[in-house]
Amino acid sequence: MTVRSLAISLLVCALSLLSAVSVCGLQEGQVRLLTVQSSINPVVAEFVREQIFLANEQADSAVLLQIDTPGGLDTAMREIIQAQLQSLIPVIVYVAPSGARAASAGALITLAADFAVMAPGSNIGAAHPVSIGAGGLGSDPTMAEKVVNDAVAYARSLAQQKGRNQDWAERIVRDSLSTPAQEALELQVIDMVADDVPALLDGLHGRKYLRQGQVRSLDIASAVLLPVEMNWRQKILNAISHPNVAYLLMMLGMLGIFFELSQPGVILPGVIGAIALLLAFFALQTLPVNFVGVLLILLSLVLFVLEVKVVSYGMLSVGGIVAMSIGSLMLIDSSDPYMQISRAVIAATVTCSAAFFLLATWMVVRTQRRTFFSGVEGMIGETGMAVSDIGEDGKVFVHGEYWQATSQDEIAAGSQIEITAVTDGLVLKVRRLNKPDLLERHREGED
After folding, report:
1. Lowest mean pLDDT among 249-253, 257-261, 275-279
2. Which of 112, 120, 171, 367 falls 20 to 30 Å from 300 in CA-CA distance?
3. pLDDT-derived band of residue 311, with 50, 70 and 90 as boundaries?
């Protein structure tokens, strides 16, 4: 074999090797990992929906949604489930880590998955609908029954579509049943129990799932795990969507607006207050808000502002504190603990806010009632001495200066006087203080 033939053979082998490596690389897919460790709110729904869409667009092998949630809003849950059902690639829901839960909305999201997996020590269920609106579900039995029946039908349809236990799906809605991981596997609610993500991928590889009427095989043996996080905007919005954070932002905004109204021109508190209120309003739209509670909190702000303008001997402030307390307790209209504002946060916030309002009111009133120390107004109430007899005309000595003065009563020279008013012509109106002989002391001082 010539050298030329050997070089050509080596080149062909190299090209064949590179082609094989390239083909393997193209065939190697990726599994997009999304982690949700919060309540199901519109921000979380937007994140999950966008990532499922991107995963389909980039032809990923699968989407892995790892959840640990107490539940959330029905509208946000349905957005996520619709994205799951419309996905062309399989969606895996993993309730993890150990000790995690998929409660309420999280349970239905798990039911809608192509493959449902739980970590040991986790639990799933408790999907009974809760009140979203004034009065709650218990205030109208007929409406409550309609809501429960709707949720039952939805849960059973999801279980039927994914081949899961339909009776169990109904019980988690009607009876708020919650089931541990191993029992959920035995009841055919989930597909497997896995300690971690690698064990999950190994256990699910090759399993069948149904898509567009066709049975397909899950191929994730060589898939690369791609963790995806929320962008900075979604992280901020998700953080402020917590009831405690939304409530604190609302109260901070009110404090800033109150300070700006009581002390116009400071600007900074008003700007901070306006920003905080806008963020609070965004957060509150993701929560089941009772608008009577919002109105009571706004009423408390009005009462505190009026306290500065109207002399009520503290009654307006007391009314403001009561309105703020009741409004804070009524603000979130839901019986779910994760939707509630912490009572400790409410107590601390109302106490601090009331103290701030009262302190600011006291400072404003004190400033408004403070005696003038300069100008014409500062002369009123000052004392001096009659240099001459004073009637319709006379002269007094005040603040080291001689002034023209007038009095309704006759005042003898040497008497101590008090200024009661200052005319436009800078003539002092005075009255006698019944302390004579100050003229002699003044003259002795001049000598």
Report:
1. 257-261
2. 367
3. low
Detail the DSSP E strand segments found in 270-415. Answer: 383-386, 394-398, 401-406
Query: How far apart are alpha carbons 173 and 158 in whole angstroms?
Result: 13
| Residues forming a β-bridge with 416 | 385
CATH code given to domain 27-233: 3.90.226.10
pTM value > 0.85:
no
Q: Which amino acid is at 279?
A: L
Rg of the chain on CA atoms, in Å: 39
- CATH of range 377-446; options 3.40.1190.20, 1.10.1840.10, 2.40.50.140, 1.10.10.10: 2.40.50.140
What lies within 8 Å, CB to CB, of 217 at 6+ separation is 206, 207, 208
Encoded tokens for 103: 């409660």
pLDDT tens sequence across 45-100: 999 999 999 999 999 999 999 999 998 888 899 999 999 999 999 999 999 999 99
Distance between CA atoms of residues 371 and 83, nearest Å: 69
Whole-number Å distance between alpha carbons of 205 and 168 = 27
Q: 393 and 404 in contact (C-beta within 8 Å)?
A: yes
Q: State the residue for tokens 């600007």.
A: 267
Q: Which residue has the tokens 């790892």?
A: 66
- Edge-to-edge strand ranges of the sheet holding 101-103: 101-103, 123-125, 178-180
Residue pair 435/415 in contact (Cβ under 8 Å)? The answer is yes
Pairing, β 62-67 against β 30-36: parallel
Domain boundaries, the chain: 27-233, 242-369, 377-446
pLDDT tens by residue, 139-163: 567 888 888 999 999 999 999 999 9
Q: What single DSSP character describes residue 103? A: E
CA dihedral 165, 167, 168, 169 (to 10 degrees): 80
Calculate the average pLDDT of the chain. 83
Residue pair 224/26 in contact by the 8 Å Cβ criterion: no
